[in-house]
Amino acid sequence: MRSTTQEDSFENEVFSMIKFFFRSFSLGGILKKVGAYKEKGVAPVILVQKLFALVFTHKSLFEDLKTGDTPEAAKDTFYRFINSCHIN
């Protein structure tokens, strides 16, 4: 079990700010308009939020998945979403 560190609180703050930004500018609706949707599983807006958070926390997807901070999605989920040819 991991104890909460200053780095963890920073990551949580970054993620909450990103969620606020997405809600403020209705980016979930924009993602639907450009064809970013899934039939089941994790919502695309959550995947994009997580990818944004990785940029601001200076972590790679591999690093984040290795620590287990993303229990709702696996590596294949992110890569299938990123490589989807249906998203404009």
Query: Runs with pLDDT <50, length 5+?
Result: none
Largest sheet: none
Order of helices and strands: HHHHH
Rg calc: 14 Å
| Multimerization status | single chain
| Average pLDDT, all residues | 86
Task: Give the count of helical stretches.
Answer: 5
Instruction: Based on Cα principal axes, name the global outline.
Output: globular
Helix content: 55-70%
Count of domains: 1
How many extended strands? 0
First-to-last CA distance: 41 Å
Query: What structural class do you assign from the helix and strand content?
Result: mainly alpha
Q: What share of residues are in beta strands?
A: under 5%
What is this structure, in a nutshell?
This protein has helices at 6-24, 27-33, 44-56, 61-67, 75-82. The chain is mainly α. It has one domain (6-82).
Explain this structure to me?
The chain is built from five helices and no strands. The protein is mainly α and 88 residues long. The chain has one domain (6-82). Helix 1 (6-24) packs across helix 3. It is globular.
